Amino acid sequence: MDSILNILSSEPFYYVALVAGIALLVYAGDWVVKSSVWVAEYFNVSKLIIGVTIVSMGTSLPELCVSLSAALSGSANISIGNVVGSNIANVCLILGITAIIITIPISRSVIRRDLVLLLAATMLFAFSLIDSEINLLEGIFMLLLMALYMYLTFRSAKKEPPEENTDAESPKKHNIWLSFLIVIISCAGLIGGSELLVYGAENIARSLGVSDRVIAVTVVAIGTSLPELTTSIVAAIKKELDISVGNIIGSNIFNICMIIGLTSCITPLEAEANILSFDVWFLLASLLLLGITVFPIKGRTEIVRIEGILLLLLYIGYYVAMGLTGQFASIG
Predict the structure, then answer these.
(1) Which of 86, 238, 243, 257 has the fewest CB atoms inside 10 Å of its own CB, making it the most exposed?
(2) d(CA 154, CA 42)
(3) Any idea what DSSP says for residue 168?
(4) Which CATH number do you get for residue 143?
(5) Contact 251, 58 (CB under 8 A)
């Protein structure tokens, strides 16, 4: 027993736990989405509703599980840093790489509705951090903003013409009990993966002498953003880009409003000062650059390669700035 405890408390195991947690989150998150879609299709829920809810939010499940687990274990900096780092990665890293591979078309509704709501959510998030804590009332406001986003999205979806269905296009009915079982097992995998990732991240931060926040906005954020990154790159290669920008922005809104909102309703989130004084500014800069790239010029609404390069450079600049300001240095 003592030998097992020694292994579990050894530094190499922390890295194993971190990598295993990320892998389990990505794999389990993928199966949660798939099996949830099977359940929805079994009950004849429309593909549009599935896309708006299950698919768009499913890729944020890793962030949700990690943030809840971290907050409940007293590591609020991991919870908040994960969301901030993931949102920066979603815009700069994922959209940047995707746009470098192929030009990304953008729906005007994304600019008029989604981008405006994302800016509102980000400003509310930044305002909530002024006192270095996100409390119950601020969490409720975030959840209300999430409800508004869902209402506007559903209302917009209903206005779109229905897709023509043929027998050949009808979805295959999966065994409903097996689908439910996979949903349950996958959710258990998400919980287990989040526990492993938080355990590994906390102990790696301690062993390296850096703050939980630094690990959260870098390693944890990239790890929990892998579903979005994988989905977007595959979509770019297959030239199926109808979900790229809308899903990324929707995921970012969900990260702030649902994840931070729900977590802060369960327990107040105390944040490290650098989150507001450093990370949030890069988060706002990423939104400003995204807004510039998607602003319609001569009727063009797309993100082209040069704009993708600029987004990726901003992401690299975020890490360089962290290094230059000594945030990777030991705090011990």
Answers:
(1) 238
(2) 21
(3) G
(4) 1.20.1420.30
(5) no
